[in-house]
Amino acid sequence: xxxxxxxxxxxxxxxxxxxxxxxxxxxxxxxxxxxxxxxxxxxxxxxxxxxxxxxxxxxxxxxxxxxxxxxxxxxxxxxxx
Length: 81
Description:
By secondary structure, the chain is an all-alpha fold. Helices cover 69% and strands 0% of the residues. The protein has helices at 12-22, 30-39, 43-54, 57-62, 64-80. Helix 1 packs antiparallel against helix 2 (30-39).
């Protein structure tokens, strides 16, 4: 199995995005700073990739707790609009 992509699994970047979502952040701006420094992504791009991951069955299989939590948050926000 390839370390970067796994066999039909998530790539390293996708796994890193989910890992970052599992962490807590101490204050405003800390998460955005981590996104830029650790992943080398602009926050807008990060959230685009994260949103796509929430609809990916591979992400659900890899980390069901995080993906389901984020799906609930997303649905709650959509219903508030």
